Amino acid sequence: MALRSNLALIKNKKKRSGFLKYLVGGFLVLLILFVGFILYFNGENIKAPLISFLKERTSLSINCKEIEFSPLYPNIIKIKDITVNKSHIDEIYAEFDLRSLIKSDNLEFKYLYLKNAQIDEADLNHIEAERFGFLNFEINKLELVDSPLTLSALVAENATANLDNVSVNQKGQLAFTSGTVQVKKGTIDGYEIKDLYAKVSEETDCSRIENFSTKIYGGIVNGSFTINKHTDEITFQSLNIKNVILKDHKQLANKYAIKAPVVSVANSVLAIPASDVYFGQLNGKISNLEIKNDTLGFIFNGRAGEISKPKMGLSTDSNAVSARVDKNNITVKIHGKYINTDFELWCKYKKNNESDEYNLLVDKITLNNGRIDLTDNLLNSIHSSAFKLNTKIENLNISNVEFVSNIDDFPLTVKNFNLNGRGISFNSKDKNYISNGIFTIVLNSGYYRDLFFKELKLKSKISGDNTLFNLENITFNNSSASGIYNYNSKNNSLTARFNANEFDVTELNSDLIKRLVNGKVNLKLEMNTQDSISKLTSAHSYTGITNEYLRKENLILRLRGKINIESKQFFISGFGLDLLNGGKEGSYTFTEDELIEALKESDCGLYKLAVSLEIDNGIAKVNGKSELTSSSVKTYGEYDLLSEKLNLHALLRTFTKGNISALHITGNKDAPVYTLKALKRDEIRTGLVLLPKQKEEEIEQKVTQEKKKENIIEKPSTSTVLEDNIQLSEDSASSDAMTIANETTESEKHQEPETVSEKEETSLKEKEQQELDAFEKELLQ
Questions:
Q1: Which band of pLDDT confidence, cut at 50, 70 and 90, is reported for residue 96?
Q2: According to the model, what pLDDT value does residue 635 have?
Q3: Which of 42, 136, 213, 744 has a C-alpha 20 to 30 A away from that of 172?
């Protein structure tokens, strides 16, 4: 029994052993088959069916260089060097849901990695249209490396993004819940950016961007903000701007609605080309920043290394700036340096101003302890801007500054310049004139070109219809003068006074006058308009006259005044009046330039000078007397202020009574005619050397005509001509004396001499003598 039992046990063991062998063998076969399947279905063998699968779902041409795939992980695939038509991707790594790939219209990825995806725009349009047969794409985690990226306003040429819970719907719209974005180069709404980084998350009503940083506008901007999904309004929780150059803030205002409670600004630039304003090296804090509907509002407190208006050539530096900008107003306070001058400006600009008279209200402008350089460009720019903006300056204070004018027509340099102004207004209706203002000007140690003055004090008040200038004092080294001018345009009335007592004219020697002068002068001027006039030619009332000529005529006819000039002795270089009463007899007509040139040959000394000019009913009457070195002079005549016609005369007589001459000034003030008549020549004295050019020709012509009368045909010798010239000069002088007060010298120059009988000639000489006697009588009086 025991043996059987053992035999049965041995038999059963043999059966088990065989089963195990079969089992192991089957397993080995399966293992070999599985390994063979894995080895067969590797990257190379899966490539063809995968590309075939994709081609069935798109019309695009697709190829790749290498595929990594394992049946052990059928939901994972890695593809390298992929081309899709003209597009190229270096590498794709995907972990996808196998069931969604086979059975669903929505393809789901657990993880999708794309490297250097260079997608052609036409290919992208194809992909968006065909979508490989899927309606939607769901990606739990998407990683883009060195690939183009478009997210709303962001367009990146080279970006790296890690995005969570990404979905791409049928319209091609991409959405995600959170992620990070890094961009080497791209644009935001067309503005170039570099080195962008942002952490992005999506909330119910807004998109949140944190740790945002980018290089834009030439600088760096960083902060955190949210974008409202309903209004697109951007709200910054923090915003820092560094080294940014903002050229046109209006583009931002047109495109965005932005709010920022606090903004930090460091070393940045704001340029406003439309207003020709440049703010450089801005540092400080902006609060309550709001940009919306083409409007800008903020409060700024900080510093600006430079504020300039390039077209004006105006620049200030080291500025402390306080500014408030809202929809309707801009309020600015600046304290800085202008060419090493302390500068302060408080102003308010009203942008939308319909009711108020002025757009720019300046509370205060101060310039202290420095230098001001005035140029044509700066003056013209200030002038045009002030009127264009309807400017009113409440307080203007310039003190202890050096003033240098670089304007040719205003060559003023002042060592110590002081100006105080109040209520100064520039109304655009009055294009060229200050509408209102009160000024006090004090200048110390100044030069007008090369004319030195020690001090000048001037007060002025311009108010509506009235203009007042009160020259309290202008002091030179040893002399001073004062005056006042007041004009009322409403009443068309004028008052003017000027006084200079014992004024040393030597202090006036400068480039401004063409002669050197010496002596002391008393000058007194008084003028004013009367309310009643004896005769009015055109205007019957001085009120309500709008025509400028009538206003001028009315003012002149009502003007009354007197000017007195006195001097014990007065010297003028290059103005030899004594020469007028020397030389040979004759009549000469000069232009102003010719006479001045002729008088340069000698100097002039005036003694016991007394000249008065009285203005009444539009006529200025002149009376004067003086003594020269060898002659006495008496002047009389008048000037018509309306027609600007001159009728002035001077009689010169030597102290020995040997020589007498008359000088007549006629014509218009802009082109006066000077006629010199030698009435008597009993003494040989030096006369004018430079005579008018036409005089020699006239004398020669008269000689020829006289000889024709006497039937002398032969050409006279030089000595004969000279003698005859002298005789003709005497005859001409006598003839001219007949009509000395009323003649027209122009007709005399061109009139041909007529034949005169002996009787007529005798009569003329008698009249000439009578005229000469009258001159002498008046001279003796």
A1: confident
A2: 94
A3: 213
- Residue 130 sits at φ, ψ, to 5 deg, of -90, -35
pLDDT of residue 544: 52
Which of 522, 612, 517, 524 is CA-nearest to residue 570?
A: 517
Amino acid letter, residue 769: Q
In whole angstroms, give the CA distance from residue 776 to residue 679.
10
8 A C-beta contact, residue 118 and residue 88? yes
Residues 6+ apart with CB under 8 A from 570: 505, 517, 518, 519, 521, 605, 606, 607, 609
Q: For residue range 664-720, list pLDDT tens digits in order.
A: 999 999 999 999 998 888 888 888 877 665 555 555 565 566 555 555 434 333 333
Secondary structure element (H or E) that encloses residue 378, with its range = helix 376-388
Token pair of 356 as six digits: 């108020």
Residue the block writes with tokens 């068309």:
492
Which residues are CB-neighbours of 715 under 8 A, at least 6 positions away? none
Q: Distance between CA atoms of 279 and 153, rounded to whole angstroms?
A: 29
> Using CA atoms, how far apart are residues 221 and 225, in angstroms rounded to an integer?
12
In angstroms, the CA 475 to CA 489 distance is 31
Q: Which pLDDT score, from 0 to 100, does residue 16 have? A: 47
Q: How far is CA 410 from CA 424, 446, 447, 460, 621, in A?
A: 22, 13, 11, 19, 33
Rounded to whole angstroms, what are the CA distances from 777 to 234, 344, 654, 747? 101, 71, 14, 29
Which is nearest to 180 in space by CA: 156, 203, 163? 163
CA dist., res. 600 & res. 605, Å (int): 13
Strands 559-572 and 191-202 come out as unpaired
What is the residue-wise DSSP string for 450-485? TEEEEEEEEEEEEETTEEEEEEEEEE-SS-EEEEEE
Q: Which residue, 562, 559, 474, is CA-closest to 523? A: 562
Q: SS3 sequence, 405-445?
A: ECECCECEEEEEEEEEEEEEEECCCCCCCCCEEEEEEEEEE
- Selection from 247, 255, 181 nearest residue 218 by Cα: 247
Residue whose token pair is 């270096």? 90
End-to-end alpha-carbon separation of the chain, Å? 196
Q: Which of 458, 495, 451 is nearest to 474 (CA)?
A: 458
- What pLDDT does residue 260 have? 92
Q: How far is CA 432 from the centre of its chain?
A: 17
Q: Would you say residue 647 has pLDDT above 60?
A: yes
Q: State pLDDT tens for residues 243-262.
A: 998 876 666 667 778 899 99
